[in-house]
Amino acid sequence: MAKTLNPNKPLVAHHNRPFTSPIASMIVSVIALVWTIPTMGLVITSFRDKESILSTGWWTSFTNPSFTLANYREVLFTGGGALGSQGMIPFAVNSLAITIPAVVLSVGFGLMAAYALAWIPFRFSDHVFYGLFALQGVPLQLSLLPLLTFFASGVQLFGHQIIPPLGIVGTLTAVWFPHVMFGMPLVVYLLHNFVSALPRELMEAARVDGANHFEVFRRIVLPLSLPAIASIAIFQFLWIWNDLLVGLVFAGGTDDVAPLTLHLSNLGGTFGSKWENLAPAALFSIIIPLIVFFSLQRYFVRGLLAGSVKA
Amino acid sequence: MTWSGLLETSLPKFGQIGAVIAIFFGFYALAFAAGARIQGKRQNGWALALFLVPGIALAMIGLGIPAFQTFIESFKSADSSQWVGFGNYIKAVKDPDLRLAFYNTMSWVIIGPIAVTALGLALATMLNKMKREALAKSLIFMPMAISFVGGSLIWKLMYQYQEPDANQTGLVGQIMKSLGIPLQHLLLWAPWNNLFLIAVYVWSSTGFAMVILSAAIKNIPQDIEEAASLDGASGIRLFRTVTVPMVKTTIIVVLTTSMVGTLKLFDVVRTMTGGNFKTDVLSNRMFDEHFVYFNNGRGSTLAMFIFLGVLPIIIYNIRSLRAERQH
Among candidates B285, B278, B249, B279, which has minimal Cα distance to B264? Predict the structure, then answer.
């Protein structure tokens, strides 16, 4: 954990580097190539027809190019093969319907809690902060079954129903709600790092002008935190979009609310060799995070640097 | 699936997204409008109730209380009807399948983080000596954005097995064949198949280590490097005597983060082997105990084992956080 980066400073101190080495450049380039080849294999496979996929390796397509869009037609529109009758689009809709509310709510609640812990003095402020920080290390494995039971049957104490069943099992809410809860400790911690580093004079000046906590938050903290919000939102987006475990537990067996990763994992298990379906389906599922990643890489890296304590 | 059918099932889902967000912002817009009128001492209480209580409640309902319940459950029988003391723990240590899951998890926790950190550090050091690093950095970092499920499928394709005299369709098989190495069904080849699964994790996470360590290396004051090189240090020596000590804390961050990650790792094993062929790990086994065999006691016990593995790291992190805040 140790050092956290000061968000108000540039992350990278730019200086001229006197030591450049052609050997280092070469090794890095080779590794970068090796790192890219597996993904490239998937991309190329996704455009090959079934017969070629079964009979030759994807790399032979460099000398014998023959490509087809039929696989994508199945994945996106008609379904068929291993894909079931629906294709992948409904699952992408589920992934969006899980990810967007989970990101908005976890960052929203997280920012407010971070402000409270940083700038509202109260008695057990420190204890709450440490408690939350400790929760960040608790593996979510510990809470899967009790939480699922809570959703399904509420809370009973000594034979009395204290809280009725929530009635959300099998709905999208049952999937995104756990993500909000699981993400809370980390989001609060990261945003606290940022919010607590805002200049004290700014806050005090606003308070002198008669602004209360609600106004300080809305007029000062919220606008100044936008970069931090952006990077943590991206971080959460990728985290939740790519999750399998939470989806597997809380989406139950219902295709109706299953995210892309869950469906893809099922396809890989049941139809492990139908690459004409699997490859484009896999590519379809990683395309949105890749777009997010490449277009917002700077913010993402910033979130990652601040979040290098993710447990 | 027809377009109208798709629209029919999707619209309510988008409606839900909109509704959730509208309720959230609507409620807080009202709360802020009302809150802005509160003056004096009362405002702290109101602000805490609206700002802090929801976040804490969410964390407690989602993690705190359930984790405690799991702790209790781990001392109960399969259907939670009787107390069995440490029975589950003792059985877990004796059961050969669970032992295997233990050992496999241990190899994940040792090999994965060391490989990721070493590779990341090497790459970060070399990147620092490169003129145009952006592209290479992006490419190595890219798998980070790909889900472990997607990554697992990507590597399943790489590991595909064909009979030795047939055309190879997996790149790794093709390379082995051209080098004259006897072909293996890589994902069935215990115990080495564990390494091939760990490779997926290393491929996916090295970029993370590289980016963080690279930022740390670039923060090393330049005069220190210059002074060392004036003293004749270069190459490996410069790396060993200057770079590594200067980024030591970051190395520990990367190493511990990665250890926690591998301890909990689930997706890769689930997607590639389902825990079969002697590749089972604690996290996957825990899932099976809970949701396939419906043995709550044992599933909770395995979750506790994962927690016990993470505990030293939590304690270490809290201590360094306290030390840092005291400054």
Answer: B285
